[in-house]
Amino acid sequence: MTELLAPEQVMAARRCSSCPKMCRSACPTQAVTGNERHQPWGHARQVVAAERRGDAGFVDPELVDGVYACATCSACTPPCHVDGVETPLLTWAARAAVHRAGATPPIGLEAVRQAQAGNVPAAEGAQWTDPSGLLDELRTLATPGAELLLFPGCGALGRRPQAVLSAATALSALGVAFDLPEQHRCCGMVARTFGDEAAATEMRDAVLAAAEGRELVVQSPSCSYWLGAEPLAATLARALQGREPTARTATVTYHDPCYLARHQRIRDEPRQALAAAGYQVEELRRHGDTTQCSGRGGGLPLTHPDIAAGYLQLLVDDIAAAGADRVVTGCASCATALHNAGVAAEELSEAIAANLEAEP
Amino acid sequence: MTAMATTDLLPRLREVVGDGGVSASAADRAAVAHDLWPRALIRARQGTPPAPPDCVVWPRTEEEVVGVLRVCAALGVPVVPFGAGTGVCGAVVASRGGVALDLKRLDAILGWDLDSGHVTCRPGIRGIALEEAALERGLTLGHYPSSLPLSTVGGFVATRSVGQLSTRYGRIDDMVAGMRVALPDGTLVELRPQPSTGVGPDLRRLFLGSEGQFGVILQVTLRLHPLPEHRRDAAFRFADFATGVGAIREAMQAGLRPSLLRLYDADDTNLQVDHLGIGSGGGCLMLTSCEGRRAVADAEAEVLAGICSNREAEPLGPDPVLAWYPRRYEIGYQQAKYLPMPGVVLDTIEVAAPWSRIVAVYEAVKESLRRRLVVLCHLSHGYVDGACLYFTFAGAAEDEGGAVPLHEELWDTVMSRVLDNGGTIAHHHGAGLARTPYLARELGDGGVEVLRRLKRALDPAGVANPGKWGLD
User: What is the CATH T-level fold of the domain B333-427, as seen in this structure?
Assistant: First the structure.
């Protein structure tokens, strides 16, 4: 027995591990490795075994490896109809138990430290950078005191600065006044990812308190999920609604980021925004509920870069099969990862801003 | 395994599949220690699951499979092929330890012969992935086991699976046009895809259902069907089970081949009331679909409706069937809800019998266990000369310690009643460990001796999934 995991999560793990692996076909980790324990059933089974061993079970390196071999992309959620089991909440709960047991992977602890210090991930891998310069540049487009606060999020600030600048450009062009937070603070999703629930809550509360009641619009999908705030894609769709496009220039293929499409059910808005900005939008075979994760979430590129690369390859294969030559996605991290994999990819704001600028 | 084998095994396997292709980690081994055999699940619940294999290998090529087999044969180490682990009879339990040969990285589609309606694929491809690829070409495998989204083609072949529409499309046995197999010592056997062949015994049948005991399936060529142009669904309510059975017998013997043909007994019908929307009118529910070319499907549906009408079945229209299709793969969710509870025993057992014995088998099984367990039954597949009865059992022992004995009693009872009343103890879940104790009575001494001699001839080292069927 252990107090590291809530009784309802222990029962959820027992139920999940009694299921005939109904989410197997949806799990990208399972598709990449073929290892039976690399799927939610495997996490649950390991959690049940760990719980039998008491607290010691949650420092077992194989359990830690198992619950971190997951991008928390939630692909397992639509096929799961087991009462009392919610994925990936069970995976997050297991990571929190690992954290309480003191066994969080060091690379994850470092990520949380960097985020708490206000740094953002510079690129793929574990490089970190201070985004203050970029934020200063953005302020030239901002309206001090505006009701709407643009919160780019660590992923957008770090991995794709041009997407943040495009977001500011697009909002300005659409006449949407926005301000920026006085300083960059991580929303705490990275702490949640690495099982530090207390830090995650504290960091989220600090961001919300700093907003002082103003409306947050969040560019990075996982941040809007954790903050419970409006994703930028929805804001852009609303701002573009009813607008007559004047520069129908291109066809794009839209890739649904998991944290928008599955975690927040933001599926129509990015497509509406693209259409209103003059794009013909085409679909990948897997989209919406069944979108193929690019492998950027859940800390996967830090803890399991090989598996994360496998996720990305599955998405690249889907894009190749669709014959898409220009991909737009609602996530800056996905866009950069795809770009680095040789795909002509951009974040939603970039596509919107490009067409607005092209208008006479 | 011998100490020598233990020492030599991992380095030699790494030479074949590389460092990333083999693992002896406790977690990786535990994940393939058993399939969904309820006995194993109950034991896992109790913290004493079947012992895991000594290591897991994930070959990526046919050559690597052969290499692994040669290493195991040379060292005398058991090797157990593993697909998705969705079997329900314990066939993948490494009864003598050894190597779990996980085939899921061997999942390519190798080619299509669209004129012949053939697809050739590796064994590790999931059924749903193959079906989706066929659908893109306007074809279907016509094979829909309830595990389709989870299980692999190699598993279908190795366990002789049956799908929900097999009354029309046949069981996997009927779909295998050719295959390539590696015998336990690595010798390759090439059975070229042909529509039919008459050279001695059909060797395909030797490997169908062999559960890894005669070799490892490396590739399979399966027969496909054009997507049906039209489907006609109809549900009926019969006064009792025997009357519905009579209707199915007449339909099958008249040459009808509905794709869906399920008859639920009264207890099972009661469970379908809510989600199939059939009202609480009692009786026994039959679900049917006829599909294919429009004129043929319509004609078949009309004849079937007439047969049901002659037995005073109440027509319920297509809606219950339309409600059934979206839920067709969801049986596992209920298991997940109840199985973690102490003492709970859940299982399904599928048997078959000739028409002359089918009602007797049904009644004997129902009567023998109804005081201890909920016993549901539906007739799931029809043939010219008989049918499959699919029983579902649910209940609880007085305490957790009584769960395994209750499960053993359940199996002993069902197997005995089926044999006593002239049926066969398995229709499509395979043999594995679950049916090993009953195999001799099913096949007779002569039948078991044939299997034993085949096993010795094909697997002289005794390393191919040993410990099953009572052969060693």
Answer: GMP Synthetase; Chain A, domain 3 (3.30.300)
Q: Per-residue pLDDT tens for B382-409?
A: 999 999 999 999 999 999 999 999 999 9
Rg value, chain A, Cα:
20
Q: Which CATH topology does B3-104 take? A: 3.30.43
* Domains along chain A with CATH numbers: 7-103 (no CATH), 107-236 (no CATH), 244-358 (3.40.50)
Q: Which helix (H) or strand (E) holds A159?
A: helix A154-159
Q: Report pLDDT digits (tens) over B308-321.
A: 999 999 999 999 99
Omega before A88 within 30 of 0, i.e. cis: yes
List CB contacts (< 8 A) between B333 and chain A. Answer: 19, 22, 81-83
Q: Give the pLDDT score at A122.
A: 84
> At what angle are helices A268-276 and A232-240 packed, to 10 degrees?
40
| pLDDT, chain A, mean | 94
CA distances from A6 to A3, A40, A90, A94, A244 (A): 7, 18, 10, 10, 53
What number of helices (H) and strands (E) belong to chain A? 19, 9
Specify the DSSP class assigned to residue B207. H
The model's pLDDT over B158-206, given as tens digits with 9 standing for 90+, comes to 999 999 999 999 999 999 999 999 999 999 999 999 999 999 999 999 9
Determine phi and psi for B48, rounding to 5 degrees.
Answer: -130, 65
**Residue A12 C-alpha, separation from nearest chain B C-alpha, in angstroms:** 9
DSSP, collapsed to helix, strand or coil, labels residue B268 as helix
Shortest CB distance from B336 goes to which of A37, A66, A82? A82
C-alpha dist (Å) from residue A288 to A73, A264, A279, A285, A340: 12, 11, 18, 10, 23
Compare CB distances from B31 to A15, A20, A36 and report the shortest one's residue: A36
DSSP B65: H
CA pair distance B7, B5, nearest whole angstrom: 5
- Which pair of structure tokens corresponds to residue A248? 């129908």
Evaluate whether B412 touches B368 at the Cβ level (below 8 Å): no
Residue (of A312, A128, A146, A152) closest to A219 by Cα position: A152
The secondary structure of residue A215, as a DSSP letter, is E
Is residue B9 within 8 Å of residue B54, measured between CB atoms?
yes
A349 residue type, one letter = S
The top-level CATH class assigned to B109-226 is alpha beta
Give the amino acid at B100: A
Does the distance separating the beta carbons of A65 and B150 come in below 8 Å?
no
Chain B interface mutation, best of A9, A19, A290, highest count of B Cβ atoms under 10 Å? A19
Which class in CATH covers the domain with range B230-261+285-327? alpha beta
Residue A82 touches chain B, beta carbons under 8 Å: yes
pTM for this structure? 0.94
